[in-house]
Amino acid sequence: MRTGVWLVGARGSVATTSIVGALALRAGLADPTGCVTELPDLRGPALPAFTDLVLGGHDVVTTPLTKRAEALAAAGVLPGRLVAALPDELAAVDRELRPAPTGGTQADRAAATVRDLTAFRDRHALDRVVVVNLSATEPPARAHPAHDDPDALRAALAGPDEVLPPSSLYAYAAVLAGCPYVDFTPSTGLRLPALTALAARRGLPYAGHDGKTGETLVKSVLAPMFAMRHLRVRSWSGVNLLGGGDGATLADPAANAAKVHSKQRVLGETLGYQPQGGARIEYVEELGDFKTAWDLITFAGFLGTGMRMEFTWHGCDSALAAPLVLDLARLTAAAHAAGHTGPLVDLAFFFKDPLGAPTHSLAEQWTRLCGFAHRLPTGGAHGAPD
Questions:
Q1: Which of 11, 27, 309, 362 could serve as 220's disulfide partner, Cβ 3.0–4.6 Å?
Q2: 239 and 175 housed in the same domain
Q3: Is 308 exposed, middle or buried (0-12, 13-18, 19+ CB in 10 A)?
Q4: What is the spatial distance between Cα 152 and Cα 295, in angstroms, rounded to a whole number?
């Protein structure tokens, strides 16, 4: 199943790491560590192989992909040997990257994005293209009457106003082009009634939001533990120190608030109450593409005895996120081939703020993900083109 993976924010750290990783896996130069779709419980013929993935994307910057990869290697994010071994492959992907459409109305920009997506699909004779949003986190979308109706939205986009935030405009264009959409960010994306209705009309699946790679991953394991042991969490406070482009973006208070809301959802919905405390995100330029999180949990045991737990997480966000991007592209492509439509709730395992998730427990999400993978038809991976 030849599958296009169109990355929005294709020259960013996560996207570049995903591209280098996919090329290295295709060439047999690396092991699939971190790719959960390569575990025995998920791996199967319904998923496109790494050799079937064709990469492209949009970005507002024009730095050559090889230069971005070399910079990440110098920062310790990527092995330099892989970048040195894949110059031709990186150059080939670079030729598939397009500047983000600018100018004109939002309808004009959406039409230009649709043209890029369909040309990419036709040029490589792809069965389907999965659009994955890896762009910078946006502030929450401002309400607009057209957000509730697909036909009103189409008319409004032809006017002079900025009706949709960028993530939602990409989601709109993806749906028009017949492409499944994955939002790895906490941005609005497809989470507008007009867009979900349009996706339903077109029979498309979609997944999101906000990839679960670090502190929240740990929360999704620990919070169910406290709940199942009937231990009362009195407070849970976390400090997140980030460098790189993501940290710089989150220095904006509105974008920061959107991210914090996504990170905190797991506690209230798992415990059944919201403990005192919160999450704080700070930009520390010196950290580069690495991040540190420190959490302090206070809780009460039998007879009210007070206790505490602390943990510190040091990680490289791009190296944690990139294999999940490849996993999501493969799973969403297989879901599309199998005829799934609407939100892919069984992919909640991958997200901090998952669409329609019945649980935030990582163990329960894993069970649902495995069930989803087992139900994919083993003989239907080569479904009809979009």
A1: 362
A2: no
A3: exposed
A4: 45
